Amino acid sequence: MEGATHTFTQLQPRLLGVAYRMLGSLAEAEDVVQDVWLGWNEADPEQVADPEAWLVIATTRRSIDRLRRVQSRREHYVGIWLPEPILTESPATPEELQEASSDLSIAFLTVLERLAPEARAAFLLREVFDADYSDIASTLDKSEAACRQIVHRAKSQLREERPRYLVSADAHRHLMRRFTEAWTNADFGAMKTMMAESAVLVGDGGGIVTALPKPMVGGDRIAQLLFACTLRRKHELRLELATINGRVGVLRYFGDQLESAQSYDTDGERILRVYVQRNPEKLRRIVAEQVSCLH
User: Fold this and answer.
1) Do the bridges between strand 257-266 and strand 237-244 make them parallel or antiparallel, or are there none, so unpaired?
2) pLDDT at 100 (0 to 100)
3) Taking Cα atoms as reference points, which of 223, 261, 267, 268 lies closest to residue 240?
4) DSSP structural state of residue 255
5) What is the spatial distance between Cα 44 and Cα 32, in angstroms, rounded to a whole number?
6) Distance from CA of residue 219 to its chain's centroid?
7) N or C: where does the chain have the smaller number of CB atoms within 10 Å of the terminal CB?
8) DSSP labels for 29-97?
């Protein structure tokens, strides 16, 4: 039993990484991994030839089932649905797996929403977790040839939507630092120059707080929208750089209240996309982590 517990503990970050990328919600992912833990306790160790494969397959299958259930809710979601953001400097997150931040970013997870559950699982297992097609076939209970086709179609489906720029962490961080400094100093001109002309902003309020009902297009318009808060609530505004889903983003506060977690997609010179998470239910974990850091 102790050996089985140790095995699960060692693999838990990987399992959480699979489930979070499948579901876009750390809360949902934790539920899935907890279910896997219960199943693992009931399994006969002598019948498990490869514990890691057993656990990854179980996690993926449960994630597929959970995603099928939550997708119907997301179809009736008020406004635009965005993944739950996570602070990846903190422990016990999928980032512990040392996966590339581009495969954890809000931009990437948002694009994955276009895939059906099985296609999403096959794509992630192959492209992110480097699983063999034999393992994918076992997970999905399909032939290897069928899995190759699923992954090929998924890659084709996502090709136009996936972020196209490979930006160094330093270049991205430098741009974000300059942008937040301009924003804090109410330098609207500088904010505009750092926005791509075709930039897009997407917001999620979950029907709880106000958010744009559809994406906003145009760098000048986006800069103006972000800048407006410095005029209305200048003395309350506080911007804090934070690593969100593996990339430097912005936590925007009004007073002591976290108003939004903002993720940015850039080419290192211009901001291309802004993902603004305002849904209080999806900000709870960040708020709790920030509070715990103060104590």
Assistant:
1) unpaired
2) 45
3) 261
4) T
5) 20
6) 23
7) C
8) HHHHHHHHHHHHHHS-GGG-S-HHHHHHHHHHHHHHHHHHHHHHHHHT-SS---PPP-BTTSSSSGGGG
Q: Are residues 154 and 227 in the same domain?
A: no
pLDDT, tens digit, 9 for 90 and up, residues 72-121: 888 889 999 999 999 987 444 544 433 445 688 999 999 999 999 999 99
d(CA 175, CA 170): 9
Give me the number of domains the chain comprises.
Answer: 2
Same domain membership, residue 217 and residue 148: no
User: At residue 181, does pLDDT exceed 80?
Assistant: yes
**DSSP tally for the chain: helices H, then strands E:** 11, 6
Which CATH number characterizes residue 118's domain? 1.20.140.160
Q: What DSSP state is assigned to residue 117? A: H
β-pair partners for 260:
252
**DSSP letters along 119-184, please?**
HHHHHIIIIIS---HHHHHHHHTS-HHHHHHHHHHHHHHHTTTS------HHHHHHHHHHHHHHHH
Cβ-in-10-Å burial (0-12, 13-18, 19+) of 280 comes to middle
| Separation of alpha carbons 163 and 124, rounded Å | 16
Same domain, 131 and 188: no
Q: Which one is predicted more confidently, 72 or 249?
A: 249
Residues 269 and 194: their CA atoms lie apart, in Å, by 7
Buried b (16+ CB within 10 A) or exposed e, 171-189: ebbebbeebbebbeeeebe
- The answer to whether position 163 is within a domain reads no
CB 228 within 8 A of CB 237: no
Is the sign of the CA dihedral 215, 203, 212, 156 positive or negative?
A: positive
Report the pLDDT value the prediction gives residue 243, as an integer from 0 to 100: 94
